[in-house]
Specification:
The chain is mainly beta. 6% of the residues lie in helices and 66% in strands. It has a seven-stranded antiparallel sheet, with no helix packed on it. Strand 1 and strand 2 form a beta hairpin. The protein starts with a strand and ends with a helix.
Length: 96
């Protein structure tokens, strides 16, 4: 079993995976997209992508930020959210 937990501005993000078949998540703010091969979520720690086969969202409670995913999980990856990035380029440096 794999667990990841982090505290950010009063919220918690937790990922618990069991046997590469079931994932329980907290700290989810939005479901961006999902199908049988990919589930893409926004969390308080950034965007989170699951890749695999026969994936489905078993339980979704966005009011509490909780999502359960089931299927054959082959990949989990985090990506920085646009809101977590600082402004770049010349104008971003000028107006800091």
């Amino acid at each position: 079993m794999v667990q990841q937990s982090a505290s950010v501005s009063g919220g918690r993000h937790k990922l618990v995976m069991q046997d590469r078949k079931r994932v329980e998540l907290t700290g989810v703010t939005e479901v961006i997209s999902f199908d049988k091969k990919e589930i893409y979520l926004e969390t308080i720690e950034g965007k989170l992508r699951f890749g695999g086969e026969d994936l489905h969202v078993k339980r979704l409670t966005l009011e509490r930020g909780e999502v359960d995913v089931e299927g054959h999980i082959q990949e989990i990856s985090y990506h920085e959210s646009d809101k977590n990035k600082t402004a770049g380029g010349m104008f971003g440096r000028l107006f800091r």
